[in-house]
Amino acid sequence: MTDRLIWQRLEESNYRLTQQRQAILDVMKENRGKHLSAEDVLAEARKKAPNLGIATVYRTLDKLSSFEVLYKTVFDEGKYRYELCEDENHRHHHVICLSCGQITEIGEDLLSKLEKHLESKGFEVVDHQLIMYANCPDCKRKK
C-alpha cells in the first residue's frame, strides 16, 4: 500500500496520527510482508516512542485494521498478527511451519473457484482466509 493511499484512508476517517501512532505505522511500513504481533510492534515502536504502552499499540493496530491499512489475522493460539495491506482486492493465504513457526505467504488466491461456487448457490462471500499447517522445507530436511 502506498503512503498516499494510507494517508487518504486516515484522512477519510478523520484519524489523527499522534507521535505514538506514527511510530506504530512506521514499524508496520518498515516490516512489509511480515506478520507482527502487538508485542513485536511494541518492541520496535518503543525505539521511536519510548513511552508507548501496549494498550495504545492494540488500539492503534485495531483502528488501522478497521481502515483497511493493515490486515489482522489470527494465528497461533488465538494471537492476532498484523501486516500492512498491499493489495486492497487480494487476500493471500498462509502456511505455518509446525516445527519452527515460520509463516509463509501464498500470493495466489486459491479459493476463487470455491467463492464462485458458493455465490452460484446464493451465498454472498464477504471475505476468506486460509491457513495451512505443515513442516517447512528446512524443518522437513532436518527430520
Describe the structure.
- The chain has 143 residues and is of the alpha+beta class.
- It has two domains: 3-84, Arc Repressor Mutant, subunit A; 93-142, Dna Ligase, domain 1.
- Helix content is 41%, strand content 16%.
- It contains six helices and five strands; from the N terminus they run H-H-H-H-E-E-E-E-H-E-H.
- The protein has a three-stranded mixed sheet with strand order 4-3-5, with no helix packed on it.
- Strand 1 and strand 2 (80-84) form a beta hairpin.
- Helix 2 crosses helix 4 and helix 3 (38-45) packs across helix 4 (54-66).
- The model has no long low-confidence stretch (mean pLDDT 88).
Topology of helices and strands:
Elements: H1 3-12, H2 19-30, H3 38-45, H4 54-66, E1 70-74, E2 80-84, E3 93-97, E4 103-106, H5 112-120, E5 131-134, H6 137-142
Parallel strand pairs: 3-5
Antiparallel strand pairs: 1-2, 3-4
The geometry reads as globular
CATH classification class of the largest domain: Mainly Alpha
Label the structural class: alpha+beta
CATH topology of the largest domain: Arc Repressor Mutant, subunit A
The number of helices is 6
Q: Biggest sheet, in brief?
A: 3 strands, mixed
The rounded Rg comes to 17 Å
Helical content class:
40-55%
Report the portion of residues in β strands.
15-25%
| Chain-averaged pLDDT | 88
Number of self-contained structural domains = 2
- The CATH superfamily of the largest domain is identified as Winged helix-like DNA-binding domain superfamily/Winged helix DNA-binding domain
What is the strand arrangement across the widest sheet? 4-3-5
* Straight-line N-to-C gap: 39 Å
Order of helices and strands: HHHHEEEEHEH
Number of strands: 5
Which segments are poorly predicted (pLDDT under 50) over 5 or more consecutive residues?
Answer: none
In the CATH classification, which architecture of the largest domain applies?
Answer: Orthogonal Bundle
